[in-house]
């Protein structure tokens, strides 16, 4: 939260570090931050399809052109999938963990 801009937002997307955490409510208030929780588990098929269409319309051209690129932390061969999973469980990665064939 300290790195968030004034009137910024923090989005909780994945919780590999556990389901419970602590939040500095004073800092949240002082910076007038928005805290948003996100999950796809409770979305309907129609909502997921709409999100996919929006992603393709908004971001796909920039991805194809190389204008934006995902951050890759580490690449593992498919045979090392268990090792990749352990790396993910360690919660020390920054970016995506990729499996290749």
Provide structural commentary.
With 101 residues, this protein is an alpha/beta fold. The protein has 3 domains: 1-38, no CATH class; 43-69, no CATH class; 70-101, no CATH class. It is built from 4 helices and 4 strands; from the N terminus they run E-H-E-H-H-E-H-E. It has helices spanning 25-30, 45-58, 60-65, 81-89, and strands at 9-12, 34-37, 72-77, 96-100. Strands 1-2 form a two-stranded parallel sheet. Strands 3-4 form a two-stranded parallel sheet. Helix 4 (81-89) links the parallel strand 3 (72-77) and strand 4 (96-100). The N and C termini lie far apart (38 Å). The model has no long low-confidence stretch (mean pLDDT 90).
Mean pLDDT: 90
Structural class: alpha/beta
How many domains is the backbone divided into?
Answer: 3
The sequence of SSEs as H and E is: EHEHHEHE
Q: In which order are the strands of the major sheet placed?
A: 1-2
Regarding quaternary structure, what we see is single chain
The helix fraction, in percent, is: 25-40%
In DSSP terms (H or I, runs of 4 or more residues), the helix count works out at 4
* Secondary structure tally: strands: 4
CA radius of gyration is 17 Å
| Gap between N and C termini | 38 Å
| Fraction in beta strands | 15-25%
Q: Outline the biggest β-sheet.
A: 2 strands, parallel
* Spans of at least 5 consecutive residues with low confidence: none
Morphology call = globular
């Amino acid at each position: 939260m300290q790195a968030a801009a004034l009137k910024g937002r923090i989005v909780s997307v994945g919780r590999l570090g556990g389901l419970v955490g602590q939040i500095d409510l004073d800092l949240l208030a002082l910076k007038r931050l928005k805290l948003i929780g996100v999950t796809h588990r409770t979305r309907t098929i129609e909502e997921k399809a709409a999100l996919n269409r929006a992603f393709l319309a908004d971001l796909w051209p920039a991805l194809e052109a190389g204008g934006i690129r995902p951050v890759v932390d580490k690449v593992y061969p498919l045979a090392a999938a268990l090792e990749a999973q352990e790396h993910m469980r360690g919660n020390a990665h920054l970016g995506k963990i990729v499996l290749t064939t």
